[in-house]
Write a structure and sequence with these properties.
Strand order of the largest sheet: 6-5-4-3-2-9-12
Strand content: 15-25%
Radius of gyration: 19 Å
Largest sheet: 7 strands, parallel
Helix content: 25-40%
Number of strands: 12
Number of helices: 8
Structural class: alpha/beta
Number of domains: 1
Oligomer: single chain
Length: 296
């Protein structure tokens, strides 16, 4: 297994990945031990609100791109009503999944799924990304994609000028919600798959089928910690997915399970379903189905 270097635990969207080093964090934690919890929240709360949320809301007042995206998103409401769709995770199980079946299907790709497009022979129908480290390091590759892209509003500086980018006001802090309308705040649920589920709901897809959502990582460490890959990536479908030198965040599987539960319940309340066709996946929130049986 390749080694990874932990650069300090960060928030879900990596906004502080380049600003708070491990040394700084240790110093902050040393001070925190001597300050009552209520006082600490009062001191740091405004800072964290501004860092995580406030600055992006303020930017939306001056930058019309988010409002323009919301108007453009209206065209996607129920655009695939009653049609099944597939959400492609990026786990190693994709290598055990015959993706040729997906030609002509409605598909959502995420993060670096485009590394498979040439091999697949076709792109996904839609693309989604919310992680700041991925957007920062892969902006050129993402901008080159000629398909509808749903991008966190935090990524606006990296996707500036991209005519295919639709910005979504995603938020990784509470409250934990499932949004049926993406023209407002959308909770991230600690995984970009949760954004894709909310978009699929908005588009009217039924059922929504997950593949490649292995929900199992060989690389271990604190949830949301930012690490630097020391070699080949064992956690995704390609060794170079997060290859040597790539900065990425360890998953928060428990938090994503809580979000998936919200998604399952929202779909069920609408008489719709989410199914899990991941080969050998460890996620237990959604009913399992056989992938190959879906095409018989």
């Amino acid at each position: 297994m390749p080694t990874v270097r932990v650069t300090g635990q960060a928030c879900s969207a990596c906004l502080l990945s380049g600003r708070i080093t491990a040394t700084m964090r240790n110093a902050i934690n040393s001070v925190k031990r001597f300050v009552p919890a209520s006082a600490w929240r009062g001191i740091t709360g405004p800072y964290w609100w501004w860092t995580n949320r406030g600055q992006h809301q303020a930017a939306a007042l001056l930058d019309r791109r988010l409002r323009d995206s919301w108007r453009a998103l209206l065209a996607y409401r129920d655009c695939n009503r009653g049609q099944r769709c597939f959400i492609l995770g990026n786990g190693p199980s994709l290598r055990q999944t015959d993706l040729s079946h997906l030609r002509g299907e409605i598909t959502f790709g995420m993060n670096r799924i485009y590394l498979l497009f040439e091999e697949m022979g076709f792109p996904t129908t839609y693309y989604a990304a919310v992680n700041s480290l991925i957007l920062e390091q892969c902006a050129g590759e993402i901008k080159a994609l000629q398909l509808p892209k749903f991008i966190t509003w935090r990524g606006r500086r990296w996707l500036s000028g991209d005519p295919h980018a639709l910005f979504v006001d995603t938020d990784y802090s509470g409250p934990a919600t499932f949004s049926t309308e993406p023209t407002g705040r959308v909770f991230e649920g600690s995984t970009v798959t949760y954004l894709a589920l909310q978009l699929a709901y908005y588009m009217g897809c039924d059922p929504v089928i997950l593949i490649g959502v292995d929900h199992n990582f060989a690389t271990q460490g604190p949830p949301n910690a930012t690490v630097v890959s020391g070699g080949d990536d064992p956690n995704h479908f390609a060794p170079g997915y997060f290859g040597k030198g790539f900065r990425w965040q360890l998953p928060d599987l428990q938090a994503s399970e809580a979000a998936y539960t919200l998604a399952r319940d929202a779909f069920a309340a609408a008489g719709r379903s989410v199914l899990d066709a991941t080969v050998g996946g460890k996620l237990t929130i959604f009913p399992k189905v056989d992938y190959t049986g879906l095409f018989k």
